[in-house]
Design goal:
alpha/beta, eight-stranded parallel β-barrel, two-stranded parallel sheet, 10 strands, about 15% strand, globular, binds 1,3-dihydroxyacetonephosphate
Length: about 280
């Protein structure tokens, strides 16, 4: 079933969980994410990156993910991730996205607030709005090594939330998109100060490479949504590169290859669901 993302995240936090948001470039990965969420009886978020949404068939993928969510036995949300293009946001919502990350984090605080307000006026009250404060380095679709840069300033949080009306807040606390240069270092004191100032659930991006114990620990600090991409596509790509030739020799066994793909994705999903439980 579809469920508003903020509601599912609030329910997860109350139950001692965080909801994983998995980036889906394709339907096979999404099938695996929903099947594993059903097996574990947990909510799940299917994220679509803006480059995917803006590609030739991206909006149809969003529509297909929404249909998958409607049929699922557990709560599902379909989110357009990191969107800064107003036209794309409107199109993605028309195609079926139930949530948007209105990402004005590259601009000033005032511009960021104004952007989130503008997106709200475009999509209406029913679309769940995530916003981001601070800068998250890295490329969303390509895993190059990154170092954390501009952390979220806790002093800006209350004003940003009051001004923007965001339903969830993505934070920069030492996290990056892609691979970490060296060991990831979560700034717990910054996260604690953000939590104290925040009226909404927090979102941790860049979960790939962060130790499961640290992911679990973030829940006590108000994190209720955790975005993961690099680990998922790394697992799928390495499985496919090992299975392409055997499946070709096995009578061009496409179903077999898709099964390998689903299994690789499922393993990552299962480990993520396990990590996203408060200890
Ligand atoms: P990773 O690719 O580092 O897991 O980050 C995913 C993400 O935050 C998507 O918004």
């Amino acid at each position: 079933m579809l469920k508003p993302m903020n509601q599912m995240v609030a329910e997860a936090i109350a139950a001692g969980h965080a909801v994983p948001a998995f980036t889906c470039y394709d339907f096979t990965t999404a099938l695996a994410m929903v099947a594993e969420a059903e097996a574990q009886q947990r909510a799940v978020i299917l994220n679509v990156a803006p480059k995917t949404a803006g590609s030739a068939s991206g909006l149809r993928l969003i529509t297909a993910l929404r249909a998958l969510g409607e049929q699922a036995s557990i709560p599902v949300a379909v989110q357009l991730d990191h969107a800064s293009d107003e036209q794309l946001i409107v199109r993605a919502v028309r195609a079926g996205a139930t949530a948007v990350l209105a990402d004005g984090s590259a601009g000033t605080l005032e511009a960021n607030i104004a952007f989130v307000q503008q997106v709200r006026s475009l999509v209406g009250p029913d679309i769940v709005m995530e916003a981001e404060l601070g800068a998250l380095p890295g490329n969303e679709d390509k895993a190059f090594e990154q170092m954390a840069s501009q952390l979220t300033d806790p002093a800006q949080v209350a004003g940003f939330l009051a001004g923007s009306g965001a339903d969830l807040l993505a934070v920069a606390i030492g996290n990056v998109h892609g691979r970490y240069k060296g060991e990831p270092k979560i700034h717990w004191e910054v996260l604690e100060a953000i939590q104290a100032a925040s009226t909404v659930p927090l979102v941790l991006h860049g979960a790939s490479g962060i130790a499961p114990a640290d992911l679990s620990r973030t829940i006590a600090y108000g994190v209720g949504k955790v975005n993961l991409n690099t680990e998922l596509r790394t697992a799928v790509l390495s499985t496919l590169s090992g299975q392409l030739e055997p499946r070709r020799e096995d009578g061009q066994n496409m179903l077999g290859l898709l099964g390998d793909w689903e299994r690789a994705a499922t393993e990552v999903a299962a480990a993520t669901f396990t990590a996203l439980v408060a200890k």
